[in-house]
DUF4398 domain-containing protein (Luteimonas notoginsengisoli), 113 residues
Amino acid sequence: MFAIVLALTACASLPPPTTELATAQQAVARAGDADADQYAADELSQARRALEMAQTAMAQGREDDARSLAVQAAAVADLAHARSRKAVADTELAQRRAEISQLKARLGMEDGQ
């Protein structure tokens, strides 16, 4: 009876969180590529710390902790990526609005002449 329970428990266990770790690494890299160091530095730093902790947990055989930390790292990195992209978009929008204002001012000056 004990052998059956042991066998069922072994079958029910989750595989190592290698996919979660890879996803977290990609998310952190994607955030870094989106200039999150400049626009979402706190979130990116938090994601990097969580990823490091996940890798350490994995190396120590604490797979459940590694999985949880990797998922957290990916989520925070995705947030950093989104905030960074928003900041870049906001900056570009402000530049375009300034260009439009300048063009309107020039057109207004030309109309008066």
User: Anything to note?
Assistant: The helical segments are 2-12, 18-33, 36-39, 41-59, 63-112. The chain has a mean pLDDT of 89. Residues 14-84 form one domain. The chain is about 90% helix and 0% strand.
